[in-house]
TrEMBL record:
It comes from Myotis myotis. InterPro entries: Glutaredoxin, GRX_PICOT-like, Monothiol_GRX-rel, Thioredoxin-like_sf. Pfam families: Glutaredoxin. One of its GO terms (molecular function) is iron-sulfur cluster binding. This is Glutaredoxin 3. One of its GO terms (biological process) is intracellular iron ion homeostasis. Residues 2-46, 84-148 form the Glutaredoxin domain. The keyword Oxidoreductase does not apply. Keywords: Iron, Iron-sulfur, Metal-binding.
Length: 171
């Protein structure tokens, strides 16, 4: 089942039925389906492996199941998650490298609200963002989905008095 879903780039999550016997037995009754795996889409039972194989063979599987977003779409969404978005090693509460710590200190001194994304938690984003932004290092600061730059650029903007206007969406 997982192999088929992955092959079709279908976004899914799973539950280990061996981890909870009550859920394991309850789902059989709830769905009136005695075996596993069971595939649900938007809370509706689609069926088991045989049904999924039939749907795949008839090319209906792709129309029933939600696709996982492509990396570039995901990066566009992430870079626009907040007006000011920082991709860094660690998060607001705990920087995990000196460059990230320095940029946090600078951003915190501005009083501007921002969000962070810990690139150490998602290797696909960590590598993909370098290509997406054409910027090879971290941290990376975005304002309204546009790359501002890394630590050196942010330091320069601060020294020139341009950081606050930049963070507030001015160029």
């Amino acid at each position: 089942m997982v192999e088929i879903l992955n092959k079709h780039n279908i976004q899914f999550s799973s539950f280990d039925i061996f981890s909870d016997e009550e859920v394991r037995q309850g789902l059989k009754t709830y769905s009136n389906w005695p075996t596993y795996p069971q595939l649900y889409v938007s809370g509706e039972l689609i069926g088991g492996l045989d049904i999924v194989k039939e749907l795949e063979a008839s090319e209906e599987l792709d129309t029933i199941c939600p696709k996982a977003p492509k990396l570039e779409e995901r990066l566009k969404v992430l870079t626009n998650k907040a007006s000011v978005m920082l991709f860094m090693k660690g998060n607001k509460q705990e920087a995990k490298c000196g460059f990230s710590k320095q940029i946090l200190e600078i951003l915190n001194s501005t009083g501007v609200e921002y969000e962070t994304f810990d690139i150490l938690e998602d290797e696909e984003v960590r590598q993909g963002l370098k290509t997406f932004s054409n910027w090879p290092t971290y941290p990376q600061l975005y304002v309204k989905g546009e790359l501002v730059g890394g630590l050196d650029i942010v330091k320069e903007l601060k020294e020139n008095g341009e950081l606050l206007p930049t963070l507030n969406g001015g160029n």
